[in-house]
Amino acid sequence: MAGAIDEQRERYDEAARAARDGTASADPAALVEVRGLAVAAGNLIVQSGLTFDIRHGEVLVVMGPSGCGKSTLLRHLVGLERPVAGQVLLAGHDLHHGDADELAALRRRFGVMFQAGALWSSMSLGENVMFPMRLFTRLPAAERRRRARFKLALVGLDGGFDLMPAQLSGGMRKRAGLARALALDPELLYLDEPGSGLDPLNAARLDELILNLRHHLGTAVVLVTHENASIFAVADRALFLDPLAHTMTALGPPRDLLADGPAEVRAFLQRGVAA
Questions:
Q1: Which helix (H) or strand (E) holds 227?
Q2: pLDDT tens per residue, range 102-118
Q3: Which stretches within the chain are classed as H helix?
């Protein structure tokens, strides 16, 4: 299996090198273009043939049963793992090939919120949010503090600048992780299971926060989840990853997929939906 994956990567590399220069977005509404993507976990190809766009200002939900490859796909979309085949184009630029400095600048155009928040436990919330600013900007300390306080206020943690992660509830940690993902004013947010582990009330509050950020900041959001309440609450479109077919089998507004999508997608979306 490892040899087959390596061969696919070599074939992709040849094609990518030939097409890399001058790559342009075919759709002006698309911020990210995913083309023929195949992703693997170790030596196991979990999803292939993935082709879809992420549009400016939309909330796109990546959904499917546990183990279908949602988080694996997310790691490839943000450049943490290299695809077996295919491309992820951000504003027409290949996210996995190019000069290291150019790729680093490209990846700073989006923010990522991981499942557990991934906060630095030895830093206060304010220091966590300021950390990307310290690394990637020349802002003076006073301006970093001002912006960090603003980002914390955006997510409902006004006054939490000096709190330590250990002092936070699960919902507060999620919001703090979201504030840090917003630190560099990204045009795109990737959120990995933000409602995981939260009670229904706090999960609903987080969904409302995501919609407010999109409305007020115009930020595009890619949300990985298997929670139906969040899918119907926030998604403009939803992408279904099928764990048996190992590819995407539906893409569209959740209500449309519930009414007219493939049988397995309708069954997935009908969980918990009142008759």
A1: none
A2: 888 899 999 999 876 67
A3: 2-19, 70-77, 100-107, 125-136, 141-154, 170-181, 200-217, 228-234, 254-260, 263-269
Nearest residue to 250 (alpha-carbon basis) of 62, 69, 18, 13: 62
The structure's pTM equals 0.85
The answer to whether residues 161 and 126 touch, using CB atoms and an 8 Å cutoff, is yes
Give the CA distances from residue 67 to residues 39, 64, 150, in Å, rounded to whole numbers and listed in that order.
Answer: 13, 8, 37
- 139-156, pLDDT tens digit by residue? 999 999 999 999 999 888
The SS3 of residue 144 is helix
Confidence of residue 8 (pLDDT cuts 50, 70, 90): very low
Quote the percentage of the chain above a pLDDT of 70.
88
User: 204 is written with which tokens?
Assistant: 């609903």
| Structure token digits, residue 11 | 């074939």
Q: Element (H or E) spanning 54, and its range?
A: strand 44-55
Cα of 113 vs its chain's centroid, Å = 7
Q: Residue 44: beta bridge partners? A: 41
For residues 174 and 225, the answer to whether their CB atoms sit within 8 Å is no
Q: Which H helix or E strand runs over 52?
A: strand 44-55
Contacts of 27 (CB under 8 A, 6+ apart): 33, 53
